[in-house]
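SAMPLE LOG
Freezer: B-3
Tube label: C17
Construct: single chain, 339 aa
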Amino acid sequence: MLRSFAHPAPLLDGASILVTGGTGSFGQKLVATLLARHKPKRIIVFSRDEQKHYDMAQTFRATDHPNLRFFIGDVRDKDRLEMAMREIDFVVHAAALKHVPAAEYNPFECIRTNVHGAENVVGAALRCGVKRVVALSTDKAVNPVNLYGASKLAADKIFVAANNLAGSLPTRFSVVRYGNVVGSRGSVVPLYRKLIAEGVKSLPVTDARMTRFWVTLQQGVDFVLASLAMMHGGEIFVPKLPSMKIVDLAKLMAPSLEQEVIGIRPGEKLHEALLTEDDARTTFALKDRFVVEPQFAFWNRERYQDAGIESLPEGFRYTSDANAEWLDEATFQKVLTEL
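STRUCTURE (predicted):
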């Protein structure tokens, strides 16, 4: 089953929105969604990749979308960030170095973008009076075993703690954490498609036991916007998602091909977690998501009471291998046709 994450439009109508990492897979889908479903006053695409800016500008032509702006900039540059955030209402922070092997080999670059960049986003948002900031995290930030995951865990802590730094300022910060995005650049689905098109005789599989949470790009965008609409500050939002084994995914994409087990890469997990037992002690469930509560003296979960809070049992954990919901063949094939 693919769950939909609805979000109210009025919050975004007439608003100015900035998207860091806006030329990436998520950023482009977010911009397309905002333009198609909402009426924002202004959308600023913030990214350091000049070529991606150019390519995206060809897709979203200025004559058709006069409210769209392209800012070349890096989240490492706090002055440029602050300039871009002037008169901005909402920020979606999607900029990050995300490839696990690249982060292991280039640790300082990963830290500068993912950790120092998060600090710069917080500082710029506070100085510019941004209303709400939602930052994208990852399942790899939960009990991290690689530098990418550790850097995103640090970033999560920075964004949650930023609500204390805000003091009497109106700016609020929250985090969205979800699993593997089907079809995003660098993920296994486009890799398999490429290999199949090249006529390979087998598909590489890291481990026959490996499982992952799966979310579509549109689901991810909708979940972020829904979380932006409901956030009060300090929450970590986790969607309820289906799991699938990597071997089953490979079999569905290429039933006639053999599978070659190549072993788990350095820094890679056998199964992913979105909530640990320790997280669960300060987490409640809603119909379509979990909400990890901030440990603030002023926090009150009663503000979510109307949404139907469900407490989690002792020892609860949300992992891809122990998930109650699994992605079936029909749903997965439907997802593939929409990529």
